[in-house]
Amino acid sequence: MDPYDNDEFFDQYAQMRRSKEGLKGAGEWPALEQLLPDVTGMRILDLGAGYGWHAKYFVDHGAASVVAVDISSKMIATAEAKNSDPRISYQVGDISQVDFEADAFDMVFSSLAIHYLPSFSALVNHVKHYLKPNGIFLFSVEHPIFTASGDQDFVPSGDRTVFPVDRYFDEGERTTEFLGSQVTKCHRTLTTYLETLLTNGFAVTDVVEPTPAASLRNLPEMVNEWRRPMMLIVKSQK
What CATH number does the domain containing 229 carry? Predict the structure, then answer.
């Protein structure tokens, strides 16, 4: 079972700031928004749609249609309840397996979902197939420094705490505790993210390590976000 379909885990996720407040509660959103193109008239695929906050943003800003896919039926049900729109088609599905016609979308977007997939290369091949020529592939993932050791917590070191970076070049699965549950993610290096795009014919146009939004910087849970990168945003073009 996908952890997001576990009742206890999903209830914990619902208490997160980004779940309650939407995009304004997501620390990386201002940086991500700056990288978005003018979406007017676009056909967009949202991989790992979650509550549907991004899908609703796209149609509210003029997108012609959005196909929003998430493996969690609970996520999709919540998205349909919170962010329904006739221009959005919500689908339950594995984002590494869904298939569409060639040149079907102007932009493929993914927020904090790709680090759950075992193969980034396979995903990029899919995206290349159903993205139009000159189409945009924009995604955020947990930063490789954040995923490397698997612990994802600061640890004591003398009279201070430090963030461990270990096994960086040992790509593969990492099991970490998230919202009180054991969750499996997949670590890969920055080189793998960028070179996979380049070798598949994508032009990498932007790489951003976002810091918390100004409105969130003084929150207790954001204090450590200045001490190591947690997220990585990459924008590329076919």
Answer: 3.40.50.150
How far is the CA of 157 from the CAs of 117, 129, 167, 177, in angstroms?
32, 48, 19, 21
Contact 105, 132 (CB under 8 A): yes
- Residue 107 belongs to what domain range? 3-19+28-135+148-237
- Does 140 reside within a domain? no
In tens, the pLDDT along 156-211 reads 988 999 999 999 999 999 988 776 667 889 999 999 999 999 999 999 999 999 98
Q: What is the DSSP string of 5-22?
A: GSHHHHHHHTTSHHHHHG
CB-based contact 67:85 (threshold 8 Å): no
pLDDT in tens, 2-18: 666 666 665 666 666 67
